[in-house]
Design a protein that fits this description.
There is one protein chain. By secondary structure, the chain is α/β, with parallel strands linked by helices. Among the domains are: 9-44; 325-420. The protein contains 11 helices and 19 strands. Helix 9 links the parallel strand 16 (332-337) and strand 17. InterPro entries: F-box-like_dom_sf, F-box_AtFBL13-like, F-box_dom, FBD, FBL13/AtMIF1-like, LRR_dom_sf, LRR_FXL15/At3g58940/PEG3-like.
Length: 420
């Protein structure tokens, strides 16, 4: 029976789009299907190289691969690129004299072809990225992961005037170089520094009117926290901060902020003031996820979170109940307590419990938490649903916990209690 080859009869631009989802090695193999496919791979708009496919190849085959990449990227009159993606480990072991992988040349070739997205995963890369990368006017998205690589420095000339998304992961950044990069991305909307380290910094300055999403996850050598993080982002909608508290935090003009995800550690004598400034900067959020590993005295400097309706908390239960006084309109609460603190639940009742809180979820429940569960049930006047997760317990612990909670269930007719 003859089967019609419908894919081969599709227009060239559609088949090129299909090939763009394949690693380049797989895309090239389609050239043996028929004459219609023979040179189609050379016109694809997405070039994706994953060097793990080189493992086990002979020296001759690896050399052939290098030459093929050179021809594909550097051949004149090629079409513009939508995306250039390179993932590779142990670059220095390749360039040991037997091979000379021209990674910088490949990046330059992609830039010259008007690339819109560049995604580089360069472990153990001890060379400098080409300067032309930082003046690419066509670039919309730049993602760089440089684990175990040299310190990431930006050239003196930077102009990424159309860049909207910048994500740097596992990199060591120089303070002046970092600020130069940020300040020359004038239409940036999404900025991420994930598991990055900062060296020789007095101030990290992020003042970008167009910014909508910001994720800062920094780690620092001991004693390297004596600098200030300055953020001025009037259109910021999402903010994530996962780091130790540095010497100073200055967050201003963040009235558009809707969601924040904050995980803070303390390794500074000035942590109380800096953490307070952080809270003051995010006080307009509607949704907050807070992971806090110490207790910050809740003095009058803590702002009122008038807009906060969703709160996810990881920390000490005593600090939670105090903080609820600063969230008068809270409707949904999710909690996971770190350890037992021996809190006495005879403190005042936050207004959100009396007037607005409708749903509570407690994760990793332990039997010592029965007092806070009782406190929440007794004082939450409009509560509709309480979810308690006991799935992390042993069978014996779970049975004991269920018996405890069933007693509360019998005494509470105001809400649905769900034990999972």
């Amino acid at each position: 029976m003859c089967v019609e080859d419908r894919i081969s009869n599709l227009p060239d631009h559609i088949r090129c789009h299909i090939l763009s989802f394949l690693p380049i090695q797989e895309a090239v193999r389609t050239s043996i299907i028929s004459t219609k496919w023979r040179n189609l791979f050379a016109s694809i708009s997405t070039v994706d190289f994953d060097t793990y496919l080189l493992c086990g190849l002979t020296d001759r085959n690896v050399d052939s691969f290098k030459n093929f990449v050179d021809r594909l990227l550097k051949f004149p009159n090629q079409l513009s690129l939508d995306c250039f993606r390179l993932r590779g480990d142990e670059f220095d072991s390749w360039n040991d004299g037997d091979y000379d992988f021209d990674v910088s040349g490949w990046i330059c070739a992609a830039v010259c072809r008007g690339v819109k997205e560049i995604d580089l995963f360069l472990d153990n890369f001890c060379h400098t990225l080409p300067d032309i990368l930082f003046t690419c006017h066509s670039l919309l998205t730049l993602t760089l992961t440089a684990k175990y690589s040299k310190i990431f420095e930006v050239p003196s000339e930077v102009c990424l005037r159309n860049l909207k998304t910048l994500c740097i992961t596992n990199s060591v950044l120089v303070g002046d170089s970092l600020n130069r990069l940020i300040s020359n991305c004038h239409v940036l909307e999404d900025l991420t520094f994930d598991e990055c380290s900062v060296a020789n910094a007095r101030e990290i300055n992020i003042q970008i009117p167009s910014l909508k999403s910001l994720y800062l996850d920094f780690f620092f050598p001991t004693g390297a926290l004596n600098y200030v993080v300055v953020i001025n982002a009037p259109n910021l909608v999402y903010f994530r901060y996962d780091s130790v508290i540095v010497e100073g935090c200055s967050l201003s003009n963040m009235k558009s902020l809707e969601k924040a995800d904050i995980c803070i550690w303390f390794d500074s004598s000035n942590y109380e003031t800096s953490a307070t400034h952080l809270f003051q900067g995010i006080c307009n959020v509607r949704s907050l996820r807070l992971n806090i590993h110490e207790v910050i005295p809740l003095a009058s400097r803590i702002p009122i979170f008038h807009n906060l309706v969703e709160f996810e908390f990881y920390g000490r239960e005593s600090w939670l109940v105090e903080f609820l006084h600063f969230a008068p309109n809270l409707k949904t609460l999710t909690v996971k307590f770190q350890f037992r603190t021996g809190t006495r639940w005879n403190i005042g009742v936050p207004s959100c419990l009396s007037l607005h809180l409708k749903k509570i979820e407690i994760s990793d429940y332990a039997t010592y938490m029965i007092e806070i569960v009782r406190y929440l049930l007794d004082n939450s006047m409009v509560l509709e649903k309480l979810i308690i997760r006991v799935d992390a317990m042993t069978p014996t612990q779970e049975n004991k916990a269920r018996n405890q909670l069933l007693l509360l269930l019998k005494s509470s007719k105001k809400c649905l209690i769900v034990i999972l």
